[in-house]
Amino acid sequence: MLAQTLRAYSTAARRRPFQVAIDGPAASGKSTTAKMVAQRLGFDYIDTGAFYRCVTLAAMSKNLDPSDPSNVQKISDLAFQSRIGLKTIFADPVLNADKTLSTPASLPTTRVFLDSKDVSLEIRTGSISKHVSAVAAIGPVREAVLQKVREIGAREDTGDNHGSDSSSAGLVMDGRDIGTVVLPKADLKVFLVADSRVRAMRRLEELIRNGADPSKENLDLDVVQQDLERRDELDRTRKVSPLRKAADAMELDTSNLTIEGQVDEIVKEVEKRRGVPTQH
Ligand SMILES: Nc1ncnc2c1ncn2[C@@H]1O[C@H](COP(=O)(O)OP(=O)(O)O)[C@@H](O)[C@H]1O
Ligand SMILES: Nc1ccn([C@H]2C[C@H](O)[C@@H](COP(=O)(O)OP(=O)(O)O)O2)c(=O)n1
User: Fold this and answer.
1) Which residues form the Cytidylate kinase domain (predicted)?
2) 27 lines ligand 1 (CB under 6 A)
3) For residue 21, what are the contacts with CB-CB under 8 A and spacing of at least 6?
4) Which ipTM value was assigned to this complex?
């Protein structure tokens, strides 16, 4: 009996993927960095912000204004009922002339599905960004998202991930409360920050890259910066699971870093903590 228990325990211990929690304010580089870290290490990736954005889209599609307190119950019900799925497409490693493998330079892309519909671009529009913090402040909505995220995390733990039959060695998850609430025992916690003007420039470029037209929409650097700062303030001051740095998180300021640079810092730290150098 004891031997059986010990064997079960050691299997569970071996199976638990290495967890990397990445938190920080809006547009600090969390999802880009998290995806690339996952690609470099062969880990899975979960973007928790996408869940709050999907619930916001579901609410707005039903004309439920998230800032109206009388809609809280209906939005909470929607959060529990909505089926939300993520699929991250990682690029294959590159085979070098000397037969070694290296990580491709291309960025992985994450497709987001709400009740089977691909809403990847729709959830990034200005109107969703404007309302998402109000939705994310609703306690039952956070419970519903936590439940969904943990279910996905547990599937990855048992190998039922992305249709693959083997579980990955680790998991990278990004959001606002990953290190404090969702994965409080994460093996590595990172808190990304960057100057708000720099974040606004990067976010504006991204919106334009994704097809936004600043001449037609009310979109300039000041507008984007104000939206990021307003959202950060709401996320930091809400009662349930506010945005804050976990006491044991490593802080990384990306203002003067390249994307590769910030990914390198995190991968180095994972390798140090795992004691296993990974192939690049
Ligand atoms: N070090 C960097 N240098 C330049 N652009 C960056 C850097 N880090 C992130 N970005 C860009 O900034 C934008 C916001 O990053 P993103 O990963 O979406 O942030 P978050 O997930 O924190 O909101 C993206 O367009 C991303 O490509
Ligand atoms: N774990 C999380 C993730 C996101 N949120 C909320 C707070 C954010 O304003 C929204 C959207 O998050 P997302 O990471 O997609 O937003 P940005 O890419 O940083 O603009 O969701 C949260 O409260 N908790």
Assistant:
1) 20-271
2) yes
3) 173, 174, 178, 179, 182, 183, 186, 188, 189, 190, 246, 249
4) 0.98
